[in-house]
Design goal:
By secondary structure, the chain is of the alpha/beta class. The protein is built from 18 helices and twelve strands. The radius of gyration is 31 Å and the shape is globular.
Length: 521
């Protein structure tokens, strides 16, 4: 090898081709992730580099306002011929004819969408629901119960708390039926007190797990001073005629026979599995009966229902259609879109205490109780409250029922299909749920929660999908590894690693020495 002077590598091609500057970048002087002892077990936050903005869905417009389509009965008060068709129809329950009050193909699509979700594990279903529903962040707002937000949604639509339009006594008087633990009452009292509206309420719900939990309600509701629970024979069971009569006597005495301005009814006290419409039918009957007993003239009624596919439910709706000036079926935005939940809202009772209807409903309830007591011996059920031809002959009413059923079934089917997409692909972008929440709360005149600090706000808004994918499932909202809301310890002592992948001693910046843990703060 030829050399020049004392340099042995002057003519070496490899030496000559060696770059003078290393392609390896120098180390960062500022560490990308900084932690401190006050992070409380949260995932490390990148303080050196701001996170990239999250990508939200923009393919659909998420509404915060709703419109209402009323069903108005044109018959006069003197036209009571329809009362001649009141009947108690008792039959064996057969297969539901979905083409009668809806479109069979639409219902079949709904059933097929439900079937596609049956193979999902509970935790996968929970995570998909939390991302597919644009209104997921509505939650409970400032209240103890989510049903309070639903009532705020409906109050914005129907102005139940507008005392100038709704009452003639200067005081808002209401009843809350079967809606334990009491979200409807919580909202109504809170709203009335915030506006300085005189208000009083009475309610009946079953004893036990679904009893009214007055101690948990918002303190501004003043529920213990303004609301009186009633339990009748001690059970609070509205399906017993003696309890309905006892509640009527209580309200009549308390209001000097003037009646109530508003009756609200829910089905929260029943554990519903399977056919929801079938399981709550007697409760719906008794809620309507109690409302007609205690409402004053021009009073309003709102009641939770589910599907409207059977003649029994349609007959109930037809009776309300004839008793009130106008009726509508509405699904609040605060109600999960993948469920069949909806509400019947009735405005302006035409005749208070209609005697023939009340007598008929009492008789129907007696018959249902008798059949329930002998259910093991026969399969007979009360399937209707009126002659079928009388209800089917009102074509205007039937057309409206079919139209509402088809519209709500299609919306539910679309929501279930969205749910399946999110379950199959956890990486799908969600809606900006906090922005949707804020728009809705402003529309419903509810307080908007203060935003969290920027780092926590980014973590909650933009990376909740990633956190949920690694957290242990809990249907009650608790997430293992979350110190912010639930206790001191983030770890299960028997499970080793925490939900963020670290061992407990790593969270305390400890190190291992001879098998012992030493704090090195």
């Amino acid at each position: 090898m030829a050399t020049t002077g004392n340099d042995l590598y002057t003519d070496d091609p490899e030496y000559i081709a060696t770059p003078l500057v290393s392609p390896v970048p120098p180390p960062q002087l500022t560490p990308p992730r900084l932690r401190n002892r006050h992070d409380n077990g949260r995932a490390p936050v990148d303080r050196a580099f701001p996170p990239s903005p999250a990508v939200y869905r923009t393919d659909k417009t998420v509404a915060h306002e709703q419109s209402v389509q009323w069903m108005v009965c044109d018959a006069s008060l003197e036209d009571d011929e329809w009362l001649q068709h009141l009947r108690i129809l008792v039959e064996e329950v057969g297969e539901t004819d979905y083409s009668r009050f809806c479109e069979k193909t639409i219902v079949e699509n709904l059933v097929a969408a439900k079937e596609k979700l049956k193979d999902l594990a509970p935790q996968d279903m929970y995570r998909a629901k939390s991302r597919a529903n644009p209104y997921q962040c509505l939650g409970k707002s400032i209240f103890a119960y989510p049903t309070a937000v639903k009532m705020a949604n409906m109050d914005a639509l129907f102005q139940f708390t507008d005392i100038n339009a709704r009452t003639g006594t200067g005081e808002l008087r209401f009843a809350d039926l079967c809606s334990g633990p009491g979200g409807f009452t919580e909202y109504l009292l809170w709203r009335a007190n915030a506006r300085g509206i005189p208000i009083r309420g009475w309610g009946m719900t079953s004893r036990g797990r679904q009893d009214s939990a007055l101690d948990r309600m918002h303190p501004d509701s003043c529920v213990k001073q303004l609301f009186e629970p009633f339990y009748g024979d001690g059970t609070g069971d509205l399906r017993k005629n003696e309890n309905i009569r006892g509640f009527h006597e209580l309200v009549e005495y308390a209001t000097n026979n003037e009646g109530l301005d508003l009756v609200m009814a829910d089905s929260g006290e029943i554990d519903i599995a399977g056919n929801q419409e079938y399981h709550i039918r007697q409760l719906v009957l008794c809620q309507v009966l109690a409302a007609l007993l205690v409402l004053r003239k021009h009073g309003d009624f709102v009641m939770q229902i589910f599907d409207v596919f059977t003649p029994f439910t349609v007959d109930i709706l037809y009776i309300l259609y004839r008793c009130f000036e106008k009726v509508t079926i509405v699904k609040p935005l605060a109600s999960p879109p993948d469920t069949a939940e909806r509400y019947i809202v009735c405005r302006n009772l035409r005749v208070p205490h209609p005697p023939r209807i009340i007598e008929h409903l009492f008789a129907v309830n007696d018959r249902m109780n008798d059949l329930r007591a002998h259910q093991a011996k026969d399969a007979l059920e009360v399937t209707g409250l009126m002659d079928r031809d009388a209800v089917n002959g009102d074509e205007k009413f039937i057309d409206r029922v079919r139209s509402v059923n088809m519209r709500l079934c299609i919306r539910q089917t679309e929501a279930l299909q969205e749910l399946r997409k999110y379950a199959d692909d956890p990486s799908l972008s969600s809606f900006d749920q906090i922005e949707v929440r804020n728009r809705c709360l402003r529309e419903w005149k509810l307080p908007i929660p203060d935003p969290p600090p920027p780092e926590r706000q980014w973590q909650e808004r933009h990376s909740h999908q990633d956190r949920r994918s690694t957290e242990r499932f809990s249907p009650y909202g608790r997430r293992d590894g979350d110190r912010r809301n639930f206790g001191r310890s983030s770890y299960n002592g028997r499970s080793g690693r925490g939900m963020d992948g670290r061992y407990p001693h790593e969270d305390r910046a400890t190190y291992r020495d001879g098998g012992h843990h030493r704090d090195h703060r």
